[in-house]
Amino acid sequence: MCGIVGYVGRREAAPILVDRLDDLSYRGYDSAGxxxxxxxVVVVEKCPGKIENLRAAVGKATPPGTLGLGHTRWATHxxxxxxxxxxxxxxxxxxxxxxxxxxxxxxxxxxxxxxxxHEFSTETDTEVVIHLLEExxxxxxxxxxxxxAARLEGSFALAFLAxxxxxxxxxxxxxxxxxxxxxxxxxxxxDITALLQDTNKVxxxxxxxxxxxxxxxIDVDSFLPDPPKALGTRQLTIVDWRPEDVSKNDYPHYMxxxxxxxxxxxxxxxxxxxxxxxxxxxxxxxxxxxxxxVNSFHxxxxxxxxxxxxxxxxxxxxxxxVPVSADIASEFRYRDPIxxxxxxxxxxxxSGETADTIGSLEEARARGAKTLAVVxxxxxxxxxxxxxxxxxxxxxxxxVASTKAFTAQLTAMFLLVCYxxxxxxxxxxxxxxxxxxxxxxLPSYLEQTLEQTAATAREWGQLIANEADCYFLGRNVDExxxxxxxxxxxxISYVHAEAYAAGELxxxxxxxxxxxxxxxxxxxxxxxxxxxxxxxxxxxxxGARTFAVAREDGIGLExxxxxxxxxxxxxxxxAPILAAVPAQLLAYEAAxxxxxxxxxxxxxxxxxxxx
Length: 611
Ligand code: M6R
Hints:
The protein is an alpha/beta fold. Helix content is 35%, strand content 24%. The protein binds 5-amino-5-deoxy-1-O-phosphono-D-mannitol (M6R).
């Protein structure tokens, strides 16, 4: 989704803005632009396509001003053209805005502004914002921004500058925005990855905040009559990510780097959380008494995080013996969910900024449910808004395709279920010490999995790259994994893929299996092994080329499949976490073979901050 950066300070703004936009490019974008103020004049450069186009344009034309705004646009209203790219200007050419989010009442505002004689030049919803600001501006940008924001409906983060004022003004309302604090310079950005080179000190803004940012001064106000948190309470957050965490190092793509970072990521997920035979999640802040009182658990998320939720559902039901639902966030929030004061709604998200997941949290809270966020990004909206938070600690994830965040989420599901079982005084259905020892060994199991599967994943990936379709099958805890494998393949290689609970295939989809169709089966669960074998026979009988991912003891597949990737001998409950690795590698290799833009696949954004 769109990315915002702003700079005010002592250095030349244009190159800083372009570099920071590059850091935000992982969010997904199709055009980019900057506005730089110098000697009371503002110069705008914007280009469709890659940041490099902007960099070239800026190099030639932009003045050496030390105040400016930058933007990466992911088109919603209007095509990704130069005209529609941000920043947008008012009729006088002296006021400028960049925006992330959607202004839902823009048609009404546009009519009103047209009647008042404003001239529009773009197809975007954003342009109304700057003409509205023009209506209210009388030399005080902060005051005008407050009045403007109060007229807008939707979810938005905005940053403004006015020719002649030595400050930026930024507004946050249901779209992420932070202020970074430097020495004699300050920043505004959509997320922390844009600022890691410059500072690790940030203020995370609250909904309704309107901030004036000068080189040596920050003032926080609100456009809401009743701000959610008192204005004096914005806490300075010290970020523990390092600049090198967001560099590619020697990897050709972020995705490959992040796949290989998984052992280290899981080490962090587990660090300090298993002690003397206990799961320690004190920082999560969920009272034992509340945990005991809960009579329904609901896991809610989008995309890959939803697959972690599906996995969590199997695990929670197996251990806690209560009904557990897993929902796609965009469905949960609009389906009149049955949750109340005795429900625990668990929101899973890498970014903590996904609009539908945040909407689900609000829906759950309005019905009196308790909320727990399982998130990766510290200080994100979900982390701040939920009653309790469990950080997955996977480190920054830059590639659009989620990998290490996913395996960290699956691991967090284990930690959580064991913790809840203890508080609810449940017997664990597995030998406790053994399970905890294996849980602690997950990083080394993942290391082995990477070694064992990389070469075969390349072969399969190259083979699948030549096919029009690919099917993934699984049962039980392997079923969410099949879904994840299909999503990974689709999103980065654009090869059509579908996942099926293997038993469901016969109810329609098997009609699509033809001579040579690749079918990859996840077969890590002994309980459903024979059923999976039958399903393999069924697809082979219809001409499918079959492949399997199985545990080391998964013998007996030789005559049924063209290839097997074997996983290390971890307990089968953990096998889906390990099997995620070959699924990711296979998608990666297919995308590379097809020459795709692996880290920034077409049409996708890393963090989906609008509905
Ligand atoms: O940041 P979140 O975990 O809330 O994001 C959810 C999905 O948008 C995300 O997992 C998406 O499906 C990824 N592109 C999958 O690789």
